[in-house]
Design goal:
alpha+beta; 7-stranded antiparallel β-sheet; 6-stranded antiparallel β-sheet; 13 strands; globular
C-alpha cells in the first residue's frame, strides 16, 4: 500500500537535524603528547597479514601500532579485544554514534558495555586528505560489518571461506589455541581500515568504491589498554568491484608494534572503566 503525503509533508522534512551524541564533553585527546611519544618509540615486533587471510597481534598498554599498505591497494578489517578479557571488545556502533561514520586522527575506538572506554586512539592517518567525496564516500569506516559467509550464502548460495569473518575466526582460534566454534563468537563488527565507503543518496544503501590507499599509507594507533588485535586482508583487495573474491588483486598488510621511552608518556592516565552504577533503575 502506498500513502499520499500529508499536507505538511514538506514542513516535516524541513525540520533541522539534532546531533544525537554531542561529543564536546568526551575526554580530550592529547595528540601532541602521543605524537611526541611515538617519535621516540622503538619497533618491537611486526606481523605480516597475508592476502585473503588474517593474523592476530598483541599491543601492550601505552605502546603504538601501525597498519600499513606495503605492496598494493588493500583494505583490512580490524577487530580489537581487551587482551586480558575478550568480553571487552571494540564497539563499532557506539564509536560511530560518538565520532561519525568514518574515523581519522584524534578519534578513538571505543569498547563494549559495560566498560565503554577508549581502546585505541588514531594519532596519524596518511589518508586524512581524502575527506568526503562527491558520492558521500570516505575512508576507515565503522558502518560496514565485515564480509562474511552467512550473507554470501543468503544472497547467492555460496560457501566462501576466505571472507573477513572467516579469516578473523581462524586467526583468533589459532592465537587462542581453540576450535573455530569457540573463537567465532568473539569476532565482531570492524573498523574497515583503508576502505572507501558511504551510503547512496537515493536508496541509503551501503556502498564501496576503490580505496585511495597506496603502498606507504598507514594508520598509527595508541593502545589505551592492553590489546589483542585481529586484522584481515580483505579478499576484495581495494574493494573496487567485490569484497569476497578469488580473482580481485589482493595484497598483504603490515602491522608494526612500537614501544615509547618510559618517560615519554608522563602525564598520561589510563582510561577508567565507565562509571555508570549498573543498577538500571532497580
Amino acid at each position: 500500500m502506498t500513502y499520499d503525503p500529508p499536507e505538511d509533508a514538506q514542513a516535516r522534512r524541513a525540520l533541522a537535524p539534532v546531533i544525537c551524541y554531542p561529543n564536546n564533553t568526551l575526554p580530550q585527546v592529547d595528540i601532541d603528547l602521543y605524537r611526541s611519544a611515538r617519535s621516540g618509540a622503538v619497533k618491537t615486533d611486526e606481523v605480516l597479514v597475508p592476502a585473503r587471510d588474517a593474523r592476530c597481534f598483541t599491543v601492550p598498554q601505552g605502546h603504538f601500532f601501525r597498519i600499513s599498505s606495503v605492496e598494493g591497494p588493500q583494505v583490512g578489517d580490524l577487530n580489537l579485544w581487551n587482551a586480558n578479557d575478550l568480553s571487552e571488545r571494540f564497539y563499532s556502533g557506539k564509536t560511530r554514534a560518538l565520532h561519525g561514520t568514518h574515523l581519522t586522527t584524534g578519534e578513538r575506538m571505543w569498547s563494549s558495555f559495560p566498560s565503554l572506554r577508549p581502546m585505541a586512539t588514531i594519532i596519524d592517518d596518511t589518508l586524512d586528505w581524502y575527506g568526503m567525496d562527491a558520492f558521500g564516500g570516505s575512508v576507515h569506516d565503522v558502518i560496514g560489518t565485515r564480509c562474511d559467509p552467512y550473507t554470501g550464502n543468503l544472497l547467492s548460495g555460496s560457501q566462501y571461506h576466505h571472507c573477513c569473518h572467516s579469516n578473523l575466526t581462524r586467526a583468533l582460534g589459532n592465537h587462542l589455541g581453540v576450535a573455530t566454534d569457540q573463537a567465532e563468537p568473539h569476532v565482531h563488527d570492524v573498523l574497515n581500515v583503508f576502505m572507501c565507503t558511504g551510503f547512496t543518496r537515493d536508496t541509503g544503501q551501503y556502498f564501496m568504491k576503490a580505496s585511495p590507499v597506496r603502498p606507504g599509507d598507514h594508520l598509527d594507533f595508541f593502545a589505551e589498554i592492553d590489546l589483542l588485535g585481529g586484522l584481515s586482508a580483505c579478499p576484495g583487495g581495494d574493494c573496487s568491484s567485490e569484497h569476497s573474491s578469488d580473482t580481485a588483486a589482493c595484497f598483504p598488510l603490515l602491522v608494526e608494534i612500537f614501544e615509547p621511552p618510559a618517560e615519554a608518556l608522563d602525564g598520561w592516565k589510563a582510561p577508567n572503566l565507565n562509571q555508570y552504577d549498573r543498577t538500571h533503575g532497580l
